[in-house]
Design brief:
Layout (H helix, E strand, L loop, with lengths): L6 H10 L4 H5 L6 H8 L4 H11 L9 H7 L5 E3 L5 H4 L4 H10 L2 H4 L2 E3 L22 E3 L22 H12 L8 E3 L2 H4 L7 H15 L3 E2 L6 E2 L14 H5 L20 E2 L4 E2 L1 E3 L6 E3 L5 E3 L6 E3 L5 E2 L6 E2 L1 H6 L3 E3 L6 E3 L23 H9 L6 H6 L1 H25 L1
Bound molecules: zinc ion (8 copies).
One zinc ion binds next to strand 12.
């Protein structure tokens, strides 16, 4: 019996399965048992990619060998389980073969297309009319990652024209099991009442409405509460536009339903809250939320990547990027919240009106000491630091004098 491969070896093997058909074609002569054993070391999506690579004819999938390799545990298919470098290269053809190979329409309950930024969504075809799929995350963004992709332009090609007909084939079936859809920011970005996407959300909400009453697990009130819908499609308010196309009242992980008023007794945190970074709702059991020092909005603990250099309070990415009530020194990259502003700073436009320097006071002072900073306007902001330094030098001087005196 072989031992579990250590993680770094595993990773190398996953990379080797990187669609390189030539490399594995000679393997296809090996008995299924050996291949299945080798595949057991791979992350789940890689296992399927491996099986796919052995059969050049997609019509031959699934077959006895591919079934032996992929196994039957496919509740969750998350491309976040494989290396990002591989996931970003996957094509619709890859996705389609994988879904076919694992008989996804009858097996997969949760599908997450994490990092699959190279697909249109046409590869989701094998999921048509699935009665067991509960969650499809099309956001392309992994757990606790910022909701918009940092890939820059062009935007990922995932398209409504390819995906919505497939989703429609799922939601129009009696007994549809869908609980949660996470849409890509490319679709949510422009809130518009006349898009294909908008029309789909109306159909989805109607389907959910027909499914029978759902209540908050805590207070028993009927959901969706107030003006809310299962999927937000409000375009009139700012809040609506910010949350356009996001799911309401449903924990992303456990699918439990809560209203947004119920609080966890004792801790005074909401049973369910929406994270402003990953734009997913989580219940208190699945992800603890934290209020941002600067904007007072909720985000998952794990979604915070920044904190104030002085008080260590967490600051959300939206605030950091928007310079909202905080600033980041462009020289030393340290971040400061408004309450921990450097002495003499009253606003956060660090931009000096005269020399356009936007660094923090420590950086200005360091340059001043080296004789590299001579802007009088900037020096005003570091007067307290200069005064402190002067005081320190004087004390040092006094101390030396005393020592000299005691020696003589
Ligand atoms: Zn409630
Ligand atoms: Zn939960
Ligand atoms: Zn929100
Ligand atoms: Zn914030
Ligand atoms: Zn989050
Ligand atoms: Zn602070
Ligand atoms: Zn600095
Ligand atoms: Zn200046």
């Amino acid at each position: 019996m072989m031992e579990e491969a250590p993680p770094d070896i595993k990773r190398r093997r996953i990379s080797a399965a990187d669609g390189s058909l030539q490399d594995v074609s000679c393997l296809s002569d090996l008995p299924s048992g050996i291949l299945a054993h080798a595949a057991s070391f791979l992350a789940a999506p890689s296992r399927a990619l491996f099986a796919v690579a052995l059969d050049e004819n997609p019509a031959a999938l699934p077959n006895e060998r591919s079934s032996a390799i992929v196994g039957s545990q496919w509740d969750i298919l998350d491309f976040g389980d494989i290396e990002k470098e591989l996931a970003v290269k996957l094509s619709d053809e890859h996705i389609e073969k994988v879904l076919t190979c694992i008989d996804a329409v009858n097996n997969v309950k949760r599908l997450k297309l994490t990092n699959c930024v190279n697909i249109t969504g046409a590869g989701l075809e094998p999921l048509r009319r699935s009665l067991i799929i509960e969650q499809i995350d099309l956001s392309l963004v992994g757990d606790h990652q910022n909701y918009y992709l940092h890939y820059g332009r062009p935007w990922p090609p995932i398209s409504c024209a390819h995906v919505l007909p497939i989703l429609d084939s799922i939601i129009e079936r009696e007994g549809c099991a869908l609980m949660h859809l996470q849409f890509p920011f490319v679709w949510r970005e422009r809130a518009s009442g006349c898009s294909q996407f908008h029309a789909f959300m109306l159909r989805y909400n109607q389907m959910r409405g027909n499914r029978g009453e759902v209540v908050c697990l805590e207070c028993n009130s009927r959901l969706p509460a107030g003006q809310n819908q299962w999927i937000n499609f409000g375009i009139s308010s700012l809040h609506g536009r910010l949350h356009y196309g996001t799911q309401n009242h449903t924990c992303y992980d456990c699918f439990k339903h809560y209203c947004y008023s119920c609080e966890n007794v004792g801790e005074l945190i909401r049973m369910l809250a929406c994270c402003e970074i990953c734009k997913r709702d989580y219940c208190t059991d699945c992800s603890k939320m934290h209020v941002c020092r600067c904007c007072s909005h909720n985000s998952c603990n794990d979604c915070y990547k920044h904190e104030c250099h002085k008080c260590n309070e967490k600051i959300c990415l939206n605030c950091v990027e928007g310079h909202e009530d905080c600033y980041q020194c462009e020289e030393c990259d340290r971040l400061f919240c408004s309450e921990c502003s450097d002495p003499g700073v009253t606003d956060f436009s660090r931009n000096c009106g005269v020399c356009h320097d936007i660094s923090c006071d420590d950086c200005r002072f360091r340059r001043f000491q080296l004789g590299q900073h001579e802007c009088a306007e900037c020096i005003k902001t570091i007067v307290p630091l200069v005064a402190d330094e002067y005081k320190r030098l004087r004390q040092e001087n006094e101390q030396l004098k005393l020592e000299l005196k005691s020696k003589s």
